[in-house]
Structure formats: C-alpha cells, structure tokens
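Recap for those who missed Tuesday's class. We walked through two folding examples back to back. For each one, the amino acid string is listed first and its predicted structure tokens come directly after. Nothing is annotated here on purpose, so try labeling regions yourself before you check the end of the notes.
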Amino acid sequence: MSDHPSSKEEERRPIRRSLWRGLLKRCPNCGTGRIFARYLKPTDNCTDCGEAFGHIRTDDFAPWLTILLLGHILVPIVGTIDYYLAPPLWIILLCVVVIGIILTLALLPHSKGFCLGLMWALRLRGDEQH
C-alpha cells in the first residue's frame, strides 16, 4: 500500500483561476460551463466537463462576502451624498435601501460563484468539522 494520494487527488487546482471563473459564474475546472441552474441554485455537474458541484455547500459564506462588499460600497456613497448634497435623512435612507437592494441582487450570485470556486479549488465540501 502506498501513502501517496491518487493522481486525481494530486491534480493541482489553481486558486486564482478558480476564483476568477467562479466570479464569472463559470465552471472553475473548464471555464466554459455554467455553475448555476437558476439565480443561486448550483448545478449538480458542469454542462461541459461534467465536474461535480452539487456536493459543495457555500452556506453563509456568500452572503457574508456580499455584506462585506456592500458596506465598503454604501458607506462612501452615503458619506458623499450627505456631504455634498445634504438632503433630508429620509432621502438618504431611501437611496441607501434602493441601492442596497439592487447591489445585493447583483452581487450575490457573483459572490456565491467566487466562494464556490474557492471551495472547489481547496477541495472543501462545506461540511468539514473544526
């Protein structure tokens, strides 16, 4: 018996490439197949290369990343609007809510693809124990 992993397990998965392809909502393995069947529902397998994604659970990773990005986008926008325009508070809040909803809906699939690409490259399933 050998202590070496099989050649399939040794196969290197470049992290940067996987992150970029995931961000574009493409298969981290081949870069051409789509990883989502619907808005946030990952496909079980890539349509082009057949790589399996159904077992990867990103859970709260993608929403956490989206919230982190939204904070870095919304805070400067609110500060700029308040400083230069000085509108009433209700207008600022309305702008923040509308922009926040639009950005959340736009960023969440890309964040989930990014997380899925990272987890695929690191061979994580999402159910690992600490």
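Example two. Treat it independently of the first, because the proteins are unrelated.
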Amino acid sequence: MVEALITVRPARLEDASEIAATHDTSWRDAYRGVIPGRELERMISRRGAEWWRSAIRRGSRLLVLDFDESVGGYVSYGRNRMPSLPYGGEIFELYLAPEFQGVGFGRKLFDAARRDLAGHGLRSTLVWALADNERAISFYRRLGGDVVRRAPERFGDELRDRVAFGFE
C-alpha cells in the first residue's frame, strides 16, 4: 500500500523553487489565451525561486499544499489592499498545479488562509479573479463568494475585466 501525506503548512525557504515551478505551470494553465502571450511570459519570468525566497524571508503570509514533501499549490494573503471595499483580508493568489486541481485542495488552501486571517482579526475576505478565468470564477462562486466589484486590468496594450468576490 502506498501512502502520501497531504498537509497545508507555512512556506519554508527550501520550498521556493517548487513554488516557482507551481506558479509557472498553474499560470500557464490558467491564463494561456486569457492574458496576452508576451505579457504572460513577462509576469511568469518575474516570479522565479529568488522572488519567492525573498517573499518568505520578508514574512509574507504564504501557505503551501505539501504533497508528500512536494509543493502542489500555494496561497498568499494578507490585509485587503483596496480600502474602499469593506473587507479586512484579501487572498492575493491561490494556485494549484494542474494535477492537483478538482479534488478539494483549493478549498483546503482557501479555508486555511481564511482561518489565519480571522485569527488576526480579519474576518471578511476579498479575492480578485480575471473574468475570463472561468475555473476561478466558478471556484469562488462555489465557495459562496458574492461579486462585489468589477474593474479593468491592463496587460500591455490590452484590457481584461477582473471580478472581486467578497466573503463574510
């Protein structure tokens, strides 16, 4: 019998390369055909292992899905960056490698981040998703998010709509 331990835990410095790899594959999977190709490549290339090591060193709130000592996903979060919206916390990014999607791991990361935010007095949460990212839109709706704002985001010369979901 083969057993694998799956946990959600704070990111460690030695996770940086695997987080970068997860970022790369999950962003390509989620945004190919949504974000213009050149802009997508530029965004991915800025987030290498050293960028993630720096984020971990700075104490960024960053949890990983640890699948038998390998990173299968991550969530980053903190205080809401848009004070005009009445939410204390914000989930900045939540991504899973494609092979970890669709089996409940995204919800585990989401719930863990919300628990940590609530433990710091941030009981309501905001999360943004690109409107053309149908999987993300569906995911946040299934979790009970209410659409609270829409706004454009620029990628090079092109605009894409993004949607904010609020969670009380």
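Answers for example two:
The domain at 6-167 is CATH 3.40.630.30 (Aminopeptidase).
Strands lie at 6-10, 61-67, 70-79, 89-96, 125-130, 146-155, 158-167.
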